[in-house]
């Protein structure tokens, strides 16, 4: 049984807040590897979704 199920980012109560510093830093690392730019002023949800996409593209993460 999974004791810490991952919540869908769209259901985060703070999802519309600006992305966190760690999210921004990691996004820049992933974007550089993927040859992409990080859009300015992402929300936490948008940053999380972009991280997932870039991890898949770069083979990092999961």
Question: Describe it for me?
Answer:
This protein is mainly alpha-helical and 62 residues long. It is 47% helix and 0% strand. Helix 1 packs parallel to helix 2 (44-58). The longest helix has 15 residues, at 44-58. The two termini are 19 Å apart. The model has no long low-confidence stretch (mean pLDDT 86).
Structure keywords:
globular, 62 residues, mainly alpha
Strand content: under 5%
User: How many strand segments?
Assistant: 0
End-to-end Cα distance, whole Å, is 19 Å
Mean pLDDT: 86
N-to-C series of helices and strands: HH
* Dominant shape: globular
Structural class estimated from helices and strands = mainly alpha
| Share of helical residues | 40-55%
pLDDT < 50 stretches: none
What is the makeup of the main sheet?
Answer: none
C-alpha-based Rg, rounded = 12 Å
């Amino acid at each position: 049984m999974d004791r810490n199920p991952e919540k869908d980012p769209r259901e985060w109560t703070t999802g519309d807040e600006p992305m966190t510093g760690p999210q921004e830093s990691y996004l820049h690392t992933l974007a550089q590897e993927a040859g992409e730019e990080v859009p300015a002023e992402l929300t936490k949800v948008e940053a999380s979704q972009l991280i997932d996409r870039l991890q898949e593209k770069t083979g990092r993460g999961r």
